[in-house]
C-alpha cells in the first residue's frame, strides 16, 4: 500500500469513508486514518472541494482563462508575481507555464463586467505584466477529471474519413 493509492482514491472521491478506502486498499481503517492525517499535516492534501457544474444553476457564474506575459527584473521573480496575484479571491488557479505566455490564470466572477474590471483594474496594472489575453469559458465538459453535462448520448451521427 502506498500513500499514492490513498491519494488517488481521495482525488477520485473525497467523500469515500476510511472504511471504503480500507476495503479498496487492503489496509485497516486506523492505517487509512493515520495516512490521511499525515498527508494533511505534511501539506500534501491541501483541502477537499466539490466539483460544481455551474451550468446546472440559474445563478450566473462567469469563468475565464487569462494568459499573462511578464517581464522580470533583478528584484522581481515569477514567485513574487504569483504571490501577489494569488492573494485575490477572484483568482481560482494560477500556474507558471511553458509556451507563448508565462502564467495561466483562472478567474471567476458574477458577471463578465466584474471579471473584465478585475483584470483591467487589478491584474493589468501590475508593472511586470506586459500583456493579458482573456478567454471566457463558454461551457465546461470536464472539471477535475469529472465529466459534466446531462449524461445523454450525442444523437449526431459519427463520421470517419
From TrEMBL:
Transmembrane segments: none annotated. InterPro entries: AsnC-type_HTH_dom (IPR000485), Dimeric_a/b-barrel (IPR011008), Tscrpt_reg_AsnC-like (IPR019888), Tscrpt_reg_AsnC/Lrp_C (IPR019887), WH-like_DNA-bd_sf (IPR036388), WH_DNA-bd_sf (IPR036390). One of its GO terms (molecular function) is sequence-specific DNA binding. GO terms for biological process: response to amino acid. Pfam families: AsnC_trans_reg (PF01037), HTH_24 (PF13412). Residues 1-79 form the HTH asnC-type domain. It comes from the Archaea. This is AsnC family transcriptional regulator. It comes from Natronorubrum bangense JCM 10635.
Amino acid at each position: 500500500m502506498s500513500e499514492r493509492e490513498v491519494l488517488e482514491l481521495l482525488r477520485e472521491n473525497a467523500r469515500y469513508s476510511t472504511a471504503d478506502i480500507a476495503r479498496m486498499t487492503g489496509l485497516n481503517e486506523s492505517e487509512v486514518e493515520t495516512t490521511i492525517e499525515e498527508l494533511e499535516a505534511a501539506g500534501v492534501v491541501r483541502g477537499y472541494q466539490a466539483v460544481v457544474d455551474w451550468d446546472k444553476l440559474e445563478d450566473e457564474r462567469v469563468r475565464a482563462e487569462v494568459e499573462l506575459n511578464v517581464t522580470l527584473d533583478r528584484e522581481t521573480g515569477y514567485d513574487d508575481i504569483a504571490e501577489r496575484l494569488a492573494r485575490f479571491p477572484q483568482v481560482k488557479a494560477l500556474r507558471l507555464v511553458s509556451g507563448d505566455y508565462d502564467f495561466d490564470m483562472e478567474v471567476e466572477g458574477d458577471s463578465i463586467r466584474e471579471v473584465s474590471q478585475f483584470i483591467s483594474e487589478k491584474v493589468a496594472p501590475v508593472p511586470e505584466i506586459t500583456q493579458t489575453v482573456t478567454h471566457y469559458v463558454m461551457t465546461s465538459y470536464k472539471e477535475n477529471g469529472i465529466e459534466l453535462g446531462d449524461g445523454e448520448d450525442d444523437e449526431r451521427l459519427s463520421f470517419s474519413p
